Here is the input.
Amino acid sequence: MPLSPDQQAEIDDLRANPQPTLRAVSPGMEQHLYKAHDVLDHGFIRVIDYMGDDNAITQAARVSYGKGTKSVSNDEGLIRYLMRHWHSTPFEMCEIKLHVKLPVFVARQWIRHRTANVNEYSARYSILDREFYIPAPEHLAAQSVVNNQGRGEALQGEEAARVLEFLKSDSNRAYDHYQQMISQDDQQGLARELARMNLPANIYTQWYWKVDLHNLFHFLRLRADAHAQYEIRVYADAICEVVKDWVPFAYAAFEDYRMGGANLSGKAIDCLKRMLAGEDVTQETSGMSKGEWREFEGIVR
Here is the structure.
């Protein structure tokens, strides 16, 4: 199960005892507080705390102006302007703290985003649970023949069964040895900080991850993209659903300008102008490499 009994009891207690506050709240985010959203086979995300809302973004942008200069329609327009022109500082006024349970190999990708505060479950002090990420059959894919860091078609039949058996048996064997090494029954036992090195990268870890909205959008732009690895993308997708309820104006602008938009180089803009003028532009006359041209065609064709 994604949540331990103790974690579920803590959540139930917190939700049963709401506290009054004078700070600004987001009604959409309040519905997510202390609720776990399941991800993969044993993982989850849950919101521990947050600060700010759409109003906090526009308030920061209008720091020199009074409240009389704003309206709901102006707020949405201002947020879209800020997003469109890459004015990032106002989005830093909002923060979110998440509790995430995820496989170690996903955590190692995630931690490359060095713009957050992180505190991870420590296997130096505690014993990790026997929980491993085992992909569903449709996510057991072969290596892509055109992308060194991507997947090809899903494995089928006996090949898929063989790989699944390896993943399950190797994970459990490693954990059995982990337990035996730290056992205190009639033996001294290996230190936990050393015994953990025998564990596979698909074992689950947990952390608290706190980040501002600007850097969260950067994370989501990369990790919720269709080209991102599936196992981290599903976490990003789950976070997107939370952010959409938290800051609806900001998320809509992010979805439009970042997720749904495209950046064009000077050469690409020049080619687009020539095409609009009726010229038949080819890769050879574009001044772009084959890779650049292929990406450009993917945008404009």
Observations:
- The chain has a mean pLDDT of 91.
- The domain at 5-133+202-259 is CATH 3.30.1360.170 (Gyrase A; domain 2).
- The chain has three domains: 5-133+202-259, 135-199, 266-300.
- The longest strand covers residues 43-51.
